[in-house]
Amino acid sequence: MMKSALIYSVFGIFFLSGQATAYASPALGQEYRVAADTIPVAERFDEPLSGATQQRDNRKGPLQQEVADRKVIPVTTIETDTTYRNLLEIPKEYTGYKIEIMSTSIPLPADHDLFFQHGNITLEQLGESQFSYLIGHFEVKAKAETFRASFLEERYPGSRVVGYLGGKRQSAPASKEE
After folding, report:
1. Which of 16, 123, 144, 164 could form a disulfide with 21 if both were Cys (CB 3.0 to 4.6 A apart)?
2. Could you report the per-residue pLDDT of 34-52, keeping only the tens digit for each?
């Protein structure tokens, strides 16, 4: 019942707005009157509904004081050394295992992704044209292999565990041919 009254009033506002309309709702037993124009001609949206005027206050509040008291801090550029991100060397007495994640014939550039993805990278030069990039320190080879298989194998399929004794790289044991 209420829906039909609402439909009649909406119909009266939008379609019969040029004239005042009166209609009766038989369901509610009431008569409704719709005004000819429902939108005020001279409405001011920038003033409060009450019609009150705003008094200007010349006192400075905390916000105005803060804006006036701002200090400008100059921007200074700080240069940083990004070359090879502090590559480490194999200590002379190092005994343990490291994981070689990459081996190249030329040194990697300073902006290579490897230096941004890993910390504490050790560089070992194996000859005039062979550079090995290693990470980690493991006392047991099995732990190094587990770490490599779990975290590095997918990203670095050519990675391998390398053993050191007294700072010297241990060559892989030769396979026995019979």
Report:
1. 16
2. 555 566 666 666 666 666 6
pTM greater than 0.90 (yes/no)? no
Phi/psi at 88 (5° precision): -95, 165
CB neighbour list of residue 27: distance below 8 Å, 6 or more residues apart: 1, 4, 5
Please enumerate in sequence order all residues whose Cβ is within 8 A of that of 125, keeping only pairs 6 or more positions apart, or say none.
131, 132
- Find tokens 């005027």 and name the residue: 53
Which residue has 């991100």 as its token pair? 85
**Tokens read off for 16:** 């019969």
> Token pair for residue 18?
């040029």
Q: How far apart are CA 170 and CA 164, in angstroms?
A: 5
Q: CA 8, CA 10: separation in Å to the nearest integer?
A: 6
| Structure tokens given for 19 | 């004239």
Report the alpha-carbon distance of residue 176 to residue 141 in Å, rounded: 21
